[in-house]
Amino acid sequence: MTAAPVLSFDLGGTRMRAALVAGDGSVLAMAEGATPARDGVGAVLDGLCTLAAACLAQGPAPRAAGLCAPGPLDAARGVMLAPPTLQGWRNVPASALLGERLGLPVLLENDANAAALGEQLFGAGQGAQSLVFITVSTGIGGGVIVDGHILRGRGGLAGEIGHMKIAEHSPECACGARGCFEALASGSALGRRAAEQRRGAPEGAAPPTGRDVIEAARGGDRLALRLVAGHARWLGRGFANLLHLYAPDMLVMGGGLANGFDLLAPRIRAEIAQSAMPDYRDTPLLRAALGDAAGLVGMAHIVRQAAPDSGRERRHG
What we know:
The protein is an alpha/beta fold. The protein is built from nine helices and twelve strands. The protein has helices at residues 41-56, 94-102, 111-122, 181-185, 187-197, 210-218, 222-246, 261-275, 294-306; strands at 6-11, 15-21, 27-34, 65-69, 73-74, 79-80, 106-110, 131-136, 140-146, 149-150, 250-254, 285-287. The two termini are 19 Å apart. Keywords: Kinase, Transferase.
């Protein structure tokens, strides 16, 4: 009997994706689009269902689905509690709402947890028993693997590394606090610094994103290069804290800003060499190997582990 794929979703603050994922971690079909993060729950669910339809048109029908999303969330109850990057998402029963629309059981998991597991099983972390996955994108999230298992903590709330304090002052974080790792080192923070320092932008022009700054730096733009260097130091400071907290076999960096890993990594490592105690400094820092598919692949594995019969094939219709 041919195993059915799992329908996986990765809901981010800027982009959202859906995919059909086979049991070996291969992606059979994928669709993505912009997240209507300011438009409320209904608009996001509509978008996820549109992406699902595009995937289902390309492959066998799944028996189960999984949604990985930004925290904080309660995975056991399938409830998204109050993700800072999505407006109007407070105590939303995401699993039930999406499952009702799809006609499938839907499992919920923190997006960084799912990506960490995907990288450990099929990506850069293969062979590691412990790792910390850091997703640096609109915000900053973390997934921690300890002795081969996701570290969930009380109520599944562990790993919110974006909101550890690494400075006394910063612009206000999306969570409402100041000094957060996310407020200082996310892709949004890099874009904000670029907007503050650039003058003469055409009226009505979209503000720069972190990816825009990376691309400009790659092209030799002096301001962008300076911004990237400063940003890498903030990342390195946060990464050093993670080494002290978890002593992992490796750090794996993913998310949208990982497209600038080659530019960021040397200064991140230099900051770790200054900020971390000697026994932690040789921990490998790797770029995520699965790219945008890490969360989708990891989420599919979590669904299969929770519901082994989800792998049985079902025909469309």
